[in-house]
Amino acid sequence: MKTLYIERSTGEGRNGDWAEGLDLVGVERIVVGTGPGSFAGIRSALAFAQGYALGSKCEVLGLPSPCAVAAQVYAGGSGFPLAVVGDARRGKFWIALFEGLKLVCPVFQVEKDALSLRIPLAAKVATSDAERIGTILSETFEKRYIGGVKPTSDGLKAFAEANPSALVAEPLPIYLNPAVRD
Prior knowledge:
With 182 residues, the protein is an alpha/beta fold. The protein has two domains: 2-65 and 151-169, no CATH class; 66-148, Nucleotidyltransferase, domain 5. It is built from four helices and nine strands; from the N terminus they run ββαβαββββαβαβ. β4 and β5 form a beta hairpin. The chain is globular and about 50 Å long. The termini are far apart. The mean pLDDT is 92.
């Protein structure tokens, strides 16, 4: 089954250029990263997938975007717990916890003061938001912080293939807060 994987949670390429080169011939399924992350990026990817599915009758599935980060981190080995952390804005962070290629806790949100308390002591920490929160994570988790990892379509594919039970039918974006107008 030909599957197209779309990960746009980092918001890069908001103008839609990302969709121009997609090979849609024979696509029977589209897997979309559902965030958390860029409102515009996630919504445009979901809208594209759902619109294409209307005409082609292909299946659309979702997978939280931190799963792509986990797959990319675990490509080098998976013998450790992992926390993927992102900037939820307004002094809050989102966290997704993994044991290998299994999401063991759905994405949740915490205040900055509770960040270190909500991540298991044995877990390594990665982020898709290194530009905004890398310094905070490095100072908080020191040697456990392994750096910034941008989620990719290849990461979504690796996670989905390793753990197809994580795929969600009729996907919706993961919204942690109401829309912010900055």
